[in-house]
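User: Let's play a game. I give you a shape written as tokens, and you guess the letters that built it. Ready? Here's round one.
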């Protein structure tokens, strides 16, 4: 109760401000040391969060634990087959993989022309307009791995399209712009795809900065693609998404080993099947961002500690310079507790002021970075922020350290004997 009275006593604060004014330059330098620590923490952790947000934005429409698997050529002779054989993925492989690897959430076979080495692109004609575009044979489940936004009034391929082998297609924004008039709605209209009429059922919304999509892709039902290009049961590649809690690297290994058994490929042949593990890359990116956040915490706390120690040193010097004043106060009846609280209060006050200034400066820097990067779609960076609980936690650590470091000069002040202080010249 007595400590609270001292804290809210006007004379206490007058003495604190008087002490600060006597050592303006020294105090300012000390405050900058603490300020710099929390500024570094705010700036680095906010920047790391911006990188994290940027990659999440880049891949927000794609399942994080996803991968692509395709066949290549063998590099090891096996089971009577020579080197250089090219195993072909088939539709039957999908069910086998789904049954043998329970960690697989979605698995979608895909075919294409005009991309990923799948042959010549499709020639698409609408009245007097024409062009060559990449065409994909897909199942509806593809949207569960890579979300495709469709403009109002349209749709993506559905199960009835697959079942009935319908001649329908979904086209990209640029394809629609190239083939149709400016104010013409492509949905419901017909185009010729390699001399076969297809009905347009949807137009894709192109995603700026997406690493996998093009604004000119054309999608048709997988079964229709089979008939159009006579591909039979062959599959170009597999899109696979594992469950969120699955080890995506382990799933990738199991998929390849299962395919090797199905297609009679040596278990040691690492070239027979290729893959691209988006989940592994995403986890590495997230790990890097977390590492940056941890580094910012370590560097920031270390700098804060250094700054707080500086405050302790300043107060030790201040106590020595105020030896006579403190002796007079003790002689007039000031208790050791009152002297101790005043010195600690001065330490905490300087720490809080430095912390608040550092937070404000860090917030301004992050706001400037955000303003500079807000329109950048080709670089994975957006909205650099630090969660409020993290900021308050850093401020709490600073106040705690300021209190602890203030105990040293406070104890020094309390240990001064009134009679010795009065003799001090």
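Assistant: Ready! My guess for every position:
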């Amino acid at each position: 109760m007595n400590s609270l009275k001292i804290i809210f006593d006007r004379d206490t604060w007058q003495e604190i401000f008087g002490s600060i004014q006597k050592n303006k330059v020294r105090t300012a330098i000390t405050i900058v040391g603490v300020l710099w620590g929390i500024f570094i923490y705010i700036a680095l952790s906010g920047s790391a969060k911006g990188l994290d947000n940027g990659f999440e934005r880049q891949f927000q429409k794609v399942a994080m634990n996803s991968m692509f698997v395709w066949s290549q050529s063998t590099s090891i002779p096996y089971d009577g087959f020579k080197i250089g054989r090219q195993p072909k993925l088939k539709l039957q492989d999908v069910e086998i993989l789904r049954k043998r690897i329970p960690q697989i959430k979605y698995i979608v076979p895909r075919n294409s022309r005009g991309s990923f080495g799948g042959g010549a692109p499709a020639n698409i004609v609408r009245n007097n307009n024409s062009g060559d575009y990449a065409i994909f044979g897909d199942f509806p489940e593809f949207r569960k791995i890579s979300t495709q936004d469709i403009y109002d009034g349209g749709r993506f391929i559905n199960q009835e399209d697959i079942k009935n082998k319908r001649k329908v297609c979904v086209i990209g924004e640029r394809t629609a712009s190239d083939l149709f008039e400016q104010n013409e709605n492509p949905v419901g209209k017909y185009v010729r795809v390699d001399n076969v009429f297809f009905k347009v059922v949807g137009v894709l919304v192109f995603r700026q900065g997406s690493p996998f999509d093009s604004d000119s892709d054309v999608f048709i039902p997988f079964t229709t693609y089979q008939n159009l290009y006579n591909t039979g049961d062959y599959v170009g590649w597999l899109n696979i998404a594992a469950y969120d809690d699955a080890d995506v690297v382990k799933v990738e290994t199991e998929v390849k080993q299962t395919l090797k058994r199905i297609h009679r490929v040596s278990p040691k042949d690492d070239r027979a099947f290729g893959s691209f593990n988006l989940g592994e890359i995403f986890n590495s990116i997230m790990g890097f961002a977390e590492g940056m956040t941890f580094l910012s915490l370590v560097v920031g706390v270390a700098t804060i500690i250094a700054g707080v120690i500086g405050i302790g040193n300043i107060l030790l010097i201040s106590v020595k310079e105020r030896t006579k004043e403190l002796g007079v106060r003790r002689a007039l009846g000031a208790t050791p507790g009152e002297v101790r609280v005043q010195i600690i209060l001065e330490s905490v006050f300087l720490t809080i002021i430095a912390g608040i200034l550092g937070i404000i400066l860090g917030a301004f820097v992050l706001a400037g970075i955000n303003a500079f990067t807000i329109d950048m779609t080709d670089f994975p960076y957006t909205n650099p922020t630090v969660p409020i609980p993290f900021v308050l936690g850093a401020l709490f650590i600073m106040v705690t350290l300021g209190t602890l470091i203030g105990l040293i000069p406070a104890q020094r002040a309390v240990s001064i004997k009134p009679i010795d202080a009065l003799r001090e010249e």
